[in-house]
Structures are given as structure tokens and as C-alpha cells.
Design goal:
Shape: rod-shaped
Strand order of the largest sheet: 1-2-3
Number of strands: 3
Strand content: 5-15%
Length: 206
């Protein structure tokens, strides 16, 4: 028996919920499939982007840590350099004192050797060395000893002649407080000066 329009309308009305459900499920499945495909393509790109652009807080923390580490390294390097310089200067001054360099000249000579002439410096291990040339260095005591015998001999004290000490001692004892006599003039003869000096010595010994 053929379906009437009323029968067809009733059948469509009965099947409409099922058709709508199937259509929605198909559409949802399609959207989900597309989203999964997008996620699969975008995930590696997002990971790379996050590595190149870390979170602001994390980036600031890393920057602060790097700055602190840099500051500590610079401070340690400065302290090491100062310690090496102190050791260098102390060793030079000790060797110069042993070489009989006058005490009031030791600081000036040390500065000349290190800063002006650059003859004395420290090697990579921090040991004091004497620079014989631009490409050669020897132990500080050896190089400094040889230098003082040659180019630096002007810094050594000059030996005094015989009798100089006695003459200076005689001059120091001159003009005792108890003497009331007249001193010879500058134009007086050597004999007059010697006579006056003998008188002063006798007067001082009474």
C-alpha cells in the first residue's frame, strides 16, 4: 500500500532526532579530527617558541643569577691580582734590602722595575720573574742580581774611602759647649786651624 503524505511526514518526524544526533556526532568527530591535526602540527612550533621566549619571571631570574656570577668572578680575579701584586712587591723589596740598597730608595726602585721599565712581573702561575727580554724571563733573584751588577749598579751605595769615617767623627766632635775661645777665620792657615782644634780637644777633655 503506498505511503500517503501524512505517513511520510510522520516517519520524518519520528526519525528527525536520530538523524540530528548522527549529523551532530559526525560534525563533532570531524571538528575533533581537525583540531587533533592542528595540535599535532602546532605543538612542536609552540615548544620552539617557548624555548626562544621564556617566561618573563624566569628570564629575569636567570639574568640576575648571571650578573651575580659575573660579579663574583670579577671580585675573585681582582683579589687574586692584588695578592699577586703584594707578593711581587714584597719579594722585590726583600731582595733589594739584601743587596744593600738604601732603605729610602727601595720603594722608588721597586716602582721603576715594575711600572716604568717593566723588568719585573709575574708569570701565569703568579711567580715573580725578571724579564731579560720581551720573550725571555728568569727567576727574579737571578735576574735582579745580574741587573744590579750592570745597568742597576748606580743604585748601589758607593764605597767610602779610607779615613773618611775618622774625619767625619772628628768633625762631629767639633765645637763642644764648654769652649769659649774664638774660632779661626775661614781664611786662616791650616796650621792655625789645627792649633785651634787641638786647643778645643784639650779643653773638652778637662
Amino acid at each position: 500500500m503506498p505511503f500517503t503524505p501524512e505517513d511520510i511526514a510522520a516517519l520524518v518526524s519520528a526519525l528527525e532526532p536520530t538523524i540530528t544526533k548522527v549529523a551532530n556526532e559526525a560534525a563533532a568527530a570531524h571538528v575533533t579530527q581537525r583540531n587533533q591535526a592542528y595540535d599535532k602540527r602546532l605543538s612542536p612550533l609552540l615548544e620552539k617558541f617557548e624555548k626562544l621566549n621564556p617566561a618573563p619571571q624566569e628570564d629575569e631570574e636567570k639574568l640576575t643569577l648571571k650578573e651575580e656570577m659575573k660579579r663574583i668572578r670579577e671580585q675573585l680575579a681582582q683579589e687574586k691580582s692584588e695578592k699577586i701584586q703584594l707578593n711581587l712587591h714584597g719579594t722585590i723589596k726583600s731582595l733589594l734590602a739584601q743587596a744593600k740598597i738604601p732603605a729610602h730608595q727601595i720603594d722608588a726602585l721597586t716602582a721603576q722595575l715594575v711600572y716604568s721599565d717593566k723588568l719585573v712581573s709575574s708569570d701565569k702561575e703568579g711567580n715573580p720573574v725578571f724579564n731579560v727580554s720581551k720573550f725571555e724571563a728568569v727567576a727574579l733573584d737571578e735576574g735582579l742580581t745580574n741587573w744590579l751588577k750592570d745597568k742597576g749598579k748606580a743604585w748601589l751605595p758607593q764605597p767610602q774611602g779610607k779615613g773618611t769615617g775618622q774625619k767625619n767623627q772628628r768633625t762631629t766632635a767639633y765645637n763642644p759647649p764648654s769652649y769659649d775661645g774664638q774660632l779661626p777665620d775661614a781664611d786662616a792657615s791650616q796650621e792655625e786651624k789645627d792649633t785651634a782644634l787641638a786647643h778645643l780637644v784639650r779643653s773638652y777633655g778637662r
